[in-house]
Design goal:
Strand content: under 5%
Strand order of the largest sheet: 1-2
Oligomer: single chain
Number of strands: 2
Radius of gyration: 26 Å
Largest sheet: 2 strands, antiparallel
Helix content: 55-70%
């Protein structure tokens, strides 16, 4: 390697065409977001614990959350199929 590929503190500025500072920045940003995701998952778990202690059915709450993410037409189609399948099984 020639001396131009190292920064003043003897770390490679670019190795194999990769900008080390940019790579480090990307990795640190992902690591920071993963930590935030862990914290958020803990917060969500706490909310479900609170819901359960208040007498709510957590499985049903999860289903409602899943349904709210879907388009209304998609929900209606699923409900129609569920009804057809139930009737076919005599439920």
């Amino acid at each position: 390697m020639n001396a131009d590929t190292f920064e003043a503190d003897d770390t490679p500025a670019a190795v194999g065409g990769i900008a080390a500072d940019r790579l480090r920045s990307i990795i640190e940003r992902v690591e920071r977001l993963e930590e935030e995701r862990k914290a958020l998952a803990g917060d969500i778990k706490d909310i479900f614990t609170e819901a359960k202690s208040a007498g709510f059915d957590v499985k049903v709450i999860r289903q409602i959350i899943r349904l709210r993410k879907q388009e209304p037409a998609e929900v209606e189609e699923q409900e129609t199929l569920l009804d057809i399948y139930r009737r076919a099984l005599g439920m």
